[in-house]
Amino acid sequence: MSTVTLNRNCDFRRLYYKGKSYTNPALVIYVMPNGAGICRIGITVSKKIGNAVERNRCKRIIRAAYRQVLPQINGNFDFVFVARSKTKYLKSTQLEPILTELLQKAGAIK
């Protein structure tokens, strides 16, 4: 299954307002089915999390965890992952079960 990155602000806004959200102390995900035939992801990290190095590390951790979970995803969805303050203290292997749990709640993984 292939993945494309969400870049446009209108895509993020659509997910924030119309998508379903699922939360955890380390991560928030917004999910919405799409008709594009592929999964699309966007990752946001607030400046409250830390400096640029820490924010980019959070993005890398989320991307790595998503790559591990991607083969289990059934269907085509748009995802926005929002890092929280605890995200920067985790490794991708620690974030993977959290991401799996949230995607199961969302119905993206059976």
What's the quick description here?
This protein has 110 residues and is α/β, with parallel strands linked by helices. Helices cover 39% and strands 25% of the residues.
Question: Could you explain the architecture of this structure?
Answer:
The chain is an alpha/beta fold and 110 residues long. Helix content is 39%, strand content 25%. The chain has helices at 9-18, 52-69, 92-106; strands at residues 3-5, 20-24, 27-33, 39-44, 77-83. A 5-stranded mixed sheet has the order 1-4-5-3-2, sandwiched between helices. β2 and β3 (27-33) form a beta hairpin. α2 packs across α3 (92-106). The radius of gyration is 13 Å and the shape is globular. The protein starts with a strand and ends with a helix. The relative contact order is 0.25.
* Terminal-residue CA separation: 16 Å
Radius of gyration: 13 Å
Q: Average pLDDT value?
A: 92
Beta strands, count:
5
As an assembly, this protein is single chain
Q: Order of strands in the sheet with the most strands? A: 1-4-5-3-2
| Largest sheet entry | 5 strands, mixed
Assess the beta-strand content as a share of residues.
25-35%
What overall geometry do the principal axes of the alpha carbons give? globular
Helix-strand topology string: EHEEEHEH
Query: In terms of structural class, how would the helical and strand content be classed?
Result: alpha/beta
Contiguous uncertain segments of 5+ residues: none
Give the proportion of residues in helices: 25-40%
Tally the helices: what do you get? Answer: 3
